[in-house]
Amino acid sequence: MAKNTITLNNGVELPAIGLGVFQTPPDVTTTAVAEALRQGYRHIDTAAAYMNEREVGEGIRASGVARDEVFLETKFWISDYGYDAALHAFDKSAGKLGVDRLDLILLHQPLSSRFDLTLDAYRALEKLLADGKVRAIGVSNFMPEHLERLLAETTVVPAVNQIELHPYFQQTGLQKLHAEHGILTQAWSPIGGITSYGGGAKSTFDDPALLEIAGAHGKSVAQVMLRWHLQEGRSAIPKSTKPARIAENFDVFDFELSSEQLAAIDALDTGVRGGPDPDSITLENYGMAIPEA
Ligand code: NDP
C-alpha cells in the first residue's frame, strides 16, 4: 500500500495527494481548502497566476489545522521571472497567503524564448531556499531540454517537476529523466480534468478500461487514477470545489491495483497533450502582471 508521504530529494516530506485550486474561483476557494483540510488533506497546490492565493491562506486559517501541518505549494508566474522580480514574487505570494515561509515554490513554466530570465528566477528560488523562506524548490511544465539546461546551469536539483500527467498523456521519457535525477514527478490534471473541461473528444472519466477497473474495486474512475499515481510513485493534486468529490479523491488509501491493472492504465497513453505546448508560452501572449499583496 503506497503511503501518503513522499520524501523529496532534500529530505522534506510531501503528502502525496494535495488539493489543486486552478480554476477554483476566489469566492469558493476558502471553503474548498478548509473542507479538504477537514477531510484529511495536508497539501494544497496553488499559483500566483490562479489569483486565489489570498483565499487559500484564509481557507487554511479557517480549517483550524495548524499552519505547520499543511504543505503549501505555490508557483511564480513568468512575468515575475528574473532574479530580483522572483525574489519580490515571494513577498507577493507569501503576503497574500499570509505566511512567512512556503513549503514548495515552483517556476510555473519554462520561458523558452527568455531562458536567461527563467534561470535567474530559479537562482532566486535557490536564494529563498538558502535563506529558509521555502523548504523545497522546483519547476513545472519543464520538458527534457529545459531540465537539462537548468541542471547544467544552476546548483540545486529541482525537488519536483509538476507536469500534465493522466492516463491519456503520461510523458514516460520525462518521468524517466526525473527518476535519474531524483526529481519527483507531480501530476497536474491527474484525473484527466483537461480531457473533459478542455473540450477533448474523449474524457478519462468515460474510459471503458478505467470503468472496468473501478467496478472491480467498487471505486470511482477518479479514485482508480489517483491510486495509479500513488502506486507508480507520483504526487497528484486533483481539483474539486465539491465536498463529496474532495472527500472521494482522498479516499484512495484502502485498495491496491494489481500489476495487470497498472499496466492496463499505462497502455492508455495517447502521447497527445491536452494543455498548451510549454514552448508556446511567451511573455507576449501570457505575461499578465501579478498584483502586489
Ligand atoms: P483534475 O484532473 O484535477 O480534474 C479536475 C476536474 O475534474 C474538475 O472539472 C472537477 O470538477 C472534476 N472532478 C474532480 N474530482 C472529480 C471526481 N471525483 N469525479 C468526477 N469529476 C471530478 O484537473 P486540473 O486541471 O484541475 O488539475 C488539478 C490541479 O493541477 C489544478 O487545480 C492545479 O492545482 C494543477 N494544475 C497545474 C498546471 C500547471 O501548469 N502547473 C496546469 C493545470 C492544473 P469540480 O470542481 O466541479 O468537481
Please give a structural write-up:
By secondary structure, this protein is an alpha/beta fold. It has one domain: Alpha-Beta Barrel (TIM Barrel), CATH 3.20.20. Helices cover 41% and strands 14% of the residues. The strands form two sheets. An eight-stranded parallel β-sheet has the order 3-4-5-6-7-8-9-10. Strands 1-2 form a two-stranded antiparallel sheet. A hairpin with a 5-residue loop joins strand 1 and strand 2. Helix 2 runs parallel beside helix 3. The chain is globular, with a radius of gyration of 18 Å. The chain starts with a strand and ends in a 7-residue tail after the last helix. The model has no long low-confidence stretch (mean pLDDT 97). The structure holds NADPH dihydro-nicotinamide-adenine-dinucleotide phosphate (NDP). NADPH dihydro-nicotinamide-adenine-dinucleotide phosphate (NDP) binds next to helix 7 and helix 10.
